[in-house]
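okkk here we go again. third time trying to get the zinc ion bound version out, last two times i messed up the smiles copy paste (missing a bracket lol). double checked this time i swear
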Amino acid sequence: MLIAEDGTEKLVTAALAQRGSKYWCPGCHRPVRLKRGAVMCAHFAHQANQVCTTFSEGETAEHLLGKQQLAAWFAASGYTVRLEARLPEIHQRPDILVRKDGQLPLALEFQCSPISVEKLRQRTQGYRDHGYRVLWLLGSPYQHQLRLNAKALKFLQHYAPWGCFLVYWLTAVNGGELLLNLTTVDGERLNYQVQAWQAAQVPVSAILNLKPQLSPPRKTATQFVTFQQRLVLGRLRHQPAVVSLQTYCYQHGGSLAQLPNWVFMTTAKVPILKTAYLSWMVYLLMALRTAPANLSQQRLQTLIWQTLLPCVAQQPCLLDPNRLQAQLVAAAISELRAAKVISRQGRDWQVEADQLAWRAH
Ligand SMILES: [Zn+2]
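finally!!
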């Protein structure tokens, strides 16, 4: 922890604390010691064996340093900054709370340790329910290759000018990295654009007001579609979800190799599913087979939603997951139409049975 109380119950940051003075934990009010060494930046620590429910002692050097860097960056950018501020109304203590006139207060969480989706949901919702915005910045444990089920993806947020995004804070350079316009293609690492900056050179407002040029979603060139499909199947084949998809196909009288072309995605999509997009499309294929040949717009939409929802990942940081899902449903309708799986019949849709058949071996 970076903050403690002195003998007059005033909060003191570790960097400004006096060696030899006495300090107390603002959470449990037990005495804490000032630590200043070569490895960790100045901080306070409880005495050994003392259990404090407010401040865990598992803070890494990275977490302590990152909090300080972020606090300094926001302060230098004209924000009022409180480190480890207690928010009694929600029993939460964000790493840093920043305020600026005319804006909702913003809680910054620099996450360097594991956190469950449920805990992430509770904390994010707690802030939002009480009029705080929250931004999760990820530390080095989350900097692995970004695949669809990477641990970092539960922090996914969405903002129209940036698309789906994640923010990293890199203490080694005292700067940030915004991974924006995140999209997925089955069987590949995620695609994204990167905007990197250093705290000393770029103020907070320049990042928040960033309106980068978003590259259009990647598309598979028509001549490579079949190649792409084999590649996707090859790469996905050993994933448990796809093994069960194979079983699902058998139960319906076919196999993965006999799927019609249109179930394979040819355009990159937002990474909000927990499964390959292929799974969703296979469920949709089977749902269309048992549906009437003539569907109202409403009925078609409902059917697509019903196949989508079981595939959606938990995304506690998204403000409006429903909107992204609705966009996927709309895109699915236009892709089904382009693939001639459905065609307009007056105001309704006609389902083309030919497009729902298993392909011959
Ligand atoms: Zn304590």
